[in-house]
Amino acid sequence: MKWNKVHIGLILIGALLLGFAGAYIGVTLAQSNEDTQLIGDNNIAGNSQDESGEELEEATLPESWSKVAQAYNLIKNNYLEGAEEQQLIEGAIQGMLETLGDPYSSYMDVETMDQFNEQIESSFEGIGAEVSMVNGVVTIVSPIKNSPAEKVGLRPNDQVLEVDGESLEGYDLNEAVAKIRGEKGTEVVLTIVRQGTSEPFEVTIKRDTIPIETVHSEMKTIDGQKTGVIEITNFAETTSKEFETQLKALEEDGMEGLVIDVRGNPGGLLSSIEEILSLFVPKDTPYIQIEDQNGNKTPYYSDLDKKKDYPISVLVDEGSASASEILAVAMKEIGYDIVGNTTFGKGTVQQAVPLGDGSTVKLTFFKWLSPEGNWIHEKGVEPTVKVEQPKYYYTTPIQIEDELLEYDQSGSKIENVQVMLDGLGYEPGRTDGYFNRETEEAVKAFQEDNGLKVTGKVDQETAGMLETKIIEHIRSGEDDLQLDKALEVVHQ
Questions:
Q1: Range of 471's domain?
Q2: 11-54 confidence digits (pLDDT tens)
Q3: Active site residues
């Protein structure tokens, strides 16, 4: 059996949707950036075949397996509250996988596999975010563009502590996702802790149909030069075709430079990123290498004769994972600029092995390496041009409990208010958390402009309006410093 022959089925999505290698929280679960390889529909416990037609090895059990059977019979026949056969079998499988300490190896029951397949087809319902388990905490890898999660302001690295007031402590990723997902039109309340802050806050999200469009493009004119911007939000089945179509349209319109934006892109199908990279990486350089457990490396090449005759830059951030990182590091190593923040850091490849009843074990089989043989796992891809977004991009919603925020007070909530006001063009005078007279005047001006009672004090209504306006401002892209820099470096 030669695993290195069957790379076509690799899925670079990671965990379960909510995709950091996590999971998609769409109706569904959707899955995160786990690079998964589909082997076939036969039962792995018997003789089955991989995609190259070779037989998979028949499962053999060690003599000590009788100990497992003894434990099974003991529990099945004697446990006080009773135990179902399926419950025990699935628990045993999950237990074996948990001992590996690998967040990307997992068991997916029939329902979860149905949801996984739905996400691969880019059509599902839910909140539209990908999650992973990071240090035992459910963590947002990235919200999907135009999804409910993005609209309420969820961001990469947000930690989900509770769902509808119930703690997620002790839950595995699948169990957590099951609590978050739900049908279109229903609501879920998440308790979030944001990186750099200590106080949790709540967000109420109305589940919806998650957008299936994965490629967005536009032409910008910078200093008289036509620059194309193509944003890829996920690497789904149709993404590479959509990308090639929109790239050709930009080229035919006289494009003189290109920015590829994969910020917040949690990954997707390997075949999709392969096809996209084949448009840029010449045939004398591999676009990826796959390494097996014995250290054997297999490079993969395109048929492209030469690089594009226009400059290119790639935009990344901490929400760019898996397939996005394959794109970023390949482009970086053939000489293009990578702009933004260091990426997530997922460099392993999973293979989904059907168990015959519709359930699947997703197990880490390979590493993927860059064209030069570098492994970015748990390190990410470093940008060649590091650019932070404005400070207000990292603010958190403000929850007012009993006491209003007003003059001569201080604290982290007031600092948050000041940063938001400053980002919206009001002038609080300072952003260190002390509520001075200038901050009071800025609050009054904001309240007046937004039809609120003008008091100069921050109540929950004012705080909620600030949050709404800052999210709208971020989504407008008016102060997108990373995109501005990517456009600049293209034509340096």
A1: 391-476
A2: 343 333 322 233 433 322 233 333 333 222 222 222 233 333 33
A3: 322, 346, 350
